[in-house]
Amino acid sequence: MNAHAHEREHGGAMHAAPGDRIVVDGPVLGVPRRDGEVVAVRHADGTPPFEVRWSDTGRVTLFFPGPDAHVHHFVHRPG
Predict the structure, then answer these.
(1) For FRET with 60, which of 6, 34, 40, 53 sits at 20 to 30 Å CA-CA?
(2) β-bridge partners, 38
(3) Mapping DSSP to helix (H, G, I), strand (E, B) and coil, where does residue 8 land?
(4) Residue pLDDT, tens place only, 32-75
(5) CA-based end-to-end distance of the chain
(6) In what helix (H) or strand (E) does residue 10 lie, and over which residues does it extend?
(7) Residue 4 phi/psi, 5° resolution?
(8) So what's the pLDDT on residue 45?
(9) Euclidean distance between CA atoms 43 and 35, whole angstroms
(10) Which pLDDT score, from 0 to 100, does residue 76 have?
(11) Cα(51)–Cα(46) distance, rounded to whole angstroms?
(12) Nearest C-alpha neighbor of 71 from the set 24, 28, 1
């Protein structure tokens, strides 16, 4: 099951946790995709917005994902 199908199956809301990877596909052919690491979430249930450190700039921004964004979840093990 891909990330988009998973989100639709679970109510349509995107969820992330610190350490997950956000990938935003380019809006048109030839525009590179963008990715970054989720460094913080604003809601306890992991819904947007997310604070993301972008790999291309190193900047941390508040990110409200659109339909071209998806999350690569990583296994989060307690410290």
Answers:
(1) 6
(2) 52
(3) helix
(4) 899 999 999 999 999 999 999 999 999 999 999 999 999 999 87
(5) 29
(6) none
(7) -65, -40
(8) 96
(9) 21
(10) 61
(11) 11
(12) 24
